[in-house]
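Students often ask what a 'structure token' actually looks like in practice. Rather than answer in the abstract, let us consider Heterokaryon incompatibility domain-containing protein, a protein of 740 residues. Its sequence is given first.
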Amino acid sequence: MSNPCPKCANLSVESLLDLARIDFKAHTFSQEAYFQHHQSFDDLEEAARQGCDFCRLVLESFQRTPCPDEDPWEWPDGWIEVNEPQPEDHSGTMYSIAKGLQVSDIKLCLNATHLYSGQGFEDAQVFDEILVQVGQPYSETEDGTGIWSCPLLRLSLIMPTDRMPRIGDIRIGRYEFDNSVLGVICSQRLAKQWLSECCESHTDCLALDVQELPTRVIDVGTSSRPNDVRLMLSYGKKAKYAALSHCWGGAVSPLLTTDTILAFQEHINVSDLPANFRDAIVITRNLGIRYLWIDSLCIQQDSKADWEMESKKMGLVYRNSTVTISALVSAGSNEGIIKLGRSSPKSPKPATIKVLQDSKDSLHVFVCRKDPKEEDLRILDRDGALTRRGWTLQEYILSPRHILYGKDMIYWRCPQGYISSDGLPEGNRSPQSPYVNLSQVIYSDILSRPHPPPSDLNIILEEYYDLVGAYSQRQLTYGSDKLPAFSGLVQRLHPAIGGDYIAGLWTTDFRNGLLWRAEMMSCHHARDPYRAPSWSWAVTDDLVLFERQDAATKASPSSAELLEYNVELRDPDNPYGEIISAKLIISALTKPLARSRQAIGANWAGEDIGVAAFDEPLESGTTGRGTPKLFRVDTDALDMGDYLMSIEVKMDLFGDSPGTEWAIDVSLFRDEEYIVALIHTDDNTEEGAEWSNSEAWCLVLRQTPDDVQKTYERVGFAKIDSPPRLRWLKTWERQVLTLV
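Now compare that with the structural description of the same chain:
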């Protein structure tokens, strides 16, 4: 640190760590144990003018951060480059906020970004951030109102990759980003090191068995002969291989076709390949692996028969791979996986502070402004280009080992957890692992020490339905891939779940499998071309979630019963892929339902018994933006007797008073015949009980237009919010229904 001011001369990571031992909660500025820096922002500004590097870093971070809000809650994302014009008084920046404070003293404390908010010192493995508080820290009034004076400035502690200092058991700093060619070479060495450590040291990861190669693989050659790349037919050979998970992003060329298959076995011209494929070949070779699987080069793209044959093996391709290379941020095959020449984090010139307080050791740590937009694997996992695509979900879950390529860093994932190239441990910046029990099933026969899968089937099913919900958020280029792109997962799960798999539904849990609904306002059915029956979640490209109940796995007196089912498969040898048609025959209690275009205000409701969520909104008459409430109607009108009615309740329509009565407008009823079919309520009650033990979950069905008697299609989901009277359930008519 050049010409440090007296405050900074006395500053060290060790002194900050001693304070953190007294009081520390992750991502929170301590109000009890902090380093008291300058007494005012003016003093800090003067110290910066006198040549103190750390004070200059803090000052410039304030001066070059625009602040459109006069009272910011958190540090803004923007940045003003050196060559950009700026007023001399730095108005409109965080500097003007700090200068306007009556109390503007500077306080410092450490933070550990890998921890979740509120975790304590005992959980920390690495401290990699300094929090800078100007003025009074966050506080609350007696009524709980939060008071901020100035949001926290976050400064990152950075170390070169060849060293990482420790104070006791605590590591200090994260590794620096290196976007040079040399940095990329180091990243490739790191990836090879991760793979080696997993294979040799992770006792809970994969067994050392080498798996059989896929039908076709790319022989990537050797580093001494990098142009000797060709397509190889494996003929059952066993060897290590990598698999590529990527986004096509439009047309890809060249492809494996009937015309190119013989030529590719002789030689593949690497320079003709898209950037993603060229990079994947280099990565595979640098890992010491000879073979690589890429979908468009290993499956004949002009042969439906070959695609059907190989697509049903795709789950095994990824599950049996030595490692999967995931191009997380590449939206298309021509973007490349290895990102050279990336822009450096936007920051003033870094400063340094000493690591130890009194040691003669000259070890220092670099300090730089933290980029609010810096890469975070948790966010990449949620919003990355790769994680938006449908096919890549099963590629991600089935692959036991991954090298994940982001924009700024690379990451490792295996059954033991996540690692990032900045050296931070798994935690707040890593994705959650919500499918722990499914993973135990999927990897059960390839782990060195497999965990027994849960004995309770409901635990597996709960994660399965969550997985379907996650899959529904992803996009597919071809709607016909809806079931095939999920097939590798269900193929691995089938032995644990049992029964038959029918177009996305398990017969062992068919009631819960039917009880899905739109997560948003609607879920439109894809009808042309046909890909799934109306009762399957695979019929829609919109987001779905399941109203799952453990008790629905077992029958109760009023629950629906599955009598018969039939599915016509596109490929008779693949029960998990495309289908031509499917139907269920169930026995269920039913009530007629009138679907009305009528809309009423929220203060007119109150007599409703639940909700009827139609998959698709009405074509006209209402906006579809209200809540379609379910009402029970006792009347002999329309010769319907006791029936149910769906009316839209809107917040923007108001009556005269909350008690105002409203009249049913029969003229606004739809002409179609609807029924509500009760799928499950837990009425395994004691003798003499008056009520069911649970709410009632139902499907809304509409008779099909082909006039086939008792044949219905699903058009929505309904729920009776309160446990229904058993006496009322006895008035429902049990029918045998065919669902298509």
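One point worth highlighting: The chain has 18 helices and 33 strands. Ask yourself how you might have guessed this from the sequence alone, and why that guess would often be unreliable.
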